[in-house]
Design a protein that fits this description.
The protein is an alpha/beta fold. It is built from 21 helices and eight strands. 36% of the residues are buried. The C terminus is likely disordered.
């Protein structure tokens, strides 16, 4: 998880503050020393850390905090606000051309995952009502065009290629004309990876920019490289003028310093973050939500959005009818487990729940839960259609046959049936209006 180490250290620092009824200047100074150390260990730019801590300390030493009935909470509130400001204040959206046809120029160093990110961005655009096309302008790396074609096929987006031309700006310009002719409204131009100090290759980008006049130039950087990613962003911005940053491999960086430094150092916002290898693992970057996650306050908005993405109104209505008629089957149970997986799995959901310390649940425990999911899927898929719809017919001989088919012991099958029956009872309760009246605390959650 991004910011895992930073989050743990900050939450530990603020836990000490919350335990004090009155805060003195010495308490604030000690807390700020710990915050400074935590940020530096997270690989945040030193100058950024210095300015951040100074701003937080100045506000924390005000009478409003020191004389507050809940000074610890006031300090957390200030840190939260400063973190949001540090990462850009509000989410920065893509801008589209008023004419209806938009060109996005993707640039970056080699090995940052730029070509894959082009595919992820195309998938995200499709999901948001756009009709994108990809353009292969990497004329140097062997198999670069083939890779983009594979990526394009995986997200069902066409790719414009010209294997004969050795002039990147000519390819890009021809792609613009082709995309417009065929009715696409966004062209994503994938360029060759290069160092910001490589004059010849940077000049090529300048020529491509001049030829296609992109509405946005997006720099793809690797979060795992820490401050090197920020330095690259600064260099590209000076030479080319970028409009935004896409930070990949955020799921693999437990420090997160690059994300905290990038906006302050470059003046350019992070627009998207890559949170996994799958083509749907690209998320718009929201500073306020990320700050909330860092401070252990969860990210319910993102959790709700993920639930809405996977929400099927027709399926929900069908399930409600089944519950009313007491017809909730093992197939329905399997569908519900699939919904959790589609939202990113148990680990991903834990990161977004308020007050949930992700480290309180070990990777081994999460893997154990995921393994149980897979085992239950295998068991249900080894059943006949009749057995899934009516588990009451599962006698000893049937269970033995299913056990042989899925490679799981009969005890696992018995455990699955118990969990299914418990889930059936629980869902029936949630569907009962009287249950909600008796359990007022649950109002607003369902």
């Amino acid at each position: 998880m991004a910011f895992e180490n930073l989050s743990e250290k900050l939450q530990g620092t603020f836990k000490k503050l919350r335990g004090k009824g009155v805060l003195k200047e010495a308490d604030i100074n000690e807390a700020m020393r710990e915050v400074k150390l935590a940020l530096l260990e997270a690989d945040v730019n030193f100058k950024v850390v210095k300015e951040f801590v100074a701003a937080v300390k100045e506000k924390c030493l005000g009478a409003e905090v020191l004389e507050s009935l809940t000074p610890g909470q006031q300090v957390i509130k200030i840190v939260n606000e400063e973190l949001i400001s540090l990462m850009g204040g509000t989410g920065s959206k893509l801008t589209y051309s008023p004419s209806g046809f938009t060109v996005l120029l993707m640039v970056g160093l080699q090995g940052t995952g730029k070509t894959t990110t082009c595919g992820k961005l195309a998938a995200w655009l499709k999901k948001n009502g756009k009709k994108p096309m990809l353009c292969a302008c990497d004329i140097y790396r062997p198999a670069a065009i083939d890779q983009l074609e594979v990526v394009g096929k995986s997200v069902d987006v066409p790719v414009y290629t010209d294997r004969e031309s050795r002039v990147a700006e000519d390819i890009a310009l021809a792609a613009v004309k082709e995309a417009q002719r065929k009715g696409f409204d966004v062209l994503i131009v994938d360029t060759a990876g290069r160092l910001q100090i490589d004059d010849a290759l940077m000049e090529e980008l300048v020529r491509v920019k001049k030829a296609v006049k992109p509405h946005e130039i997006l720099l793809v950087v690797d979060a795992l490289t820490g401050q090197d990613a920020v330095n690259a962003a600064e260099g590209f911005n000076e030479r080319l003028g970028i409009d935004g940053i896409i930070m990949t491999k955020m799921d693999g960086d437990s420090r997160g310093g690059a994300a905290l430094s990038a906006k302050k150092v470059t003046g350019r916002p992070i627009k998207f973050i890559g949170m996994g290898e799958k083509m749907d693992a690209l998320e718009p970057f929201h500073p306020e939500r990320m700050a909330s996650r860092i401070l252990g306050m969860g990210d319910m908005l993102s959790l709700i959005e993920k639930a809405q993405e996977n929400f099927d109104e027709a399926k929900a209505a069908k399930l409600e009818k089944k519950l009313k008629k007491n017809e909730f089957t093992l197939e329905d149970f399997l569908d519900q487990m699939g919904e959790v997986r589609n939202m990113g799995g148990i680990g991903k959901m834990l990161e977004m729940l308020p007050g949930m310390n992700r480290k309180a649940v070990s990777d081994e425990e999460i893997e154990k839960s995921e393994k149980e999911f897979r085992q239950m899927e295998a068991i249900i898929q080894s059943m006949t259609l009749e057995e899934r719809k009516n588990p009451s017919i599962l006698n000893a001989s049937r269970r033995k046959r299913i056990s042989a088919g899925c490679g799981q012991p009969v005890s696992k099958i018995n455990s699955l049936i118990r969990k299914y029956e418990d889930a059936k009872k629980l869902m029936k309760q949630f569907n009962n209006p009287n249950f909600m009246k008796k359990n007022k605390k649950l109002k607003g959650l369902f």
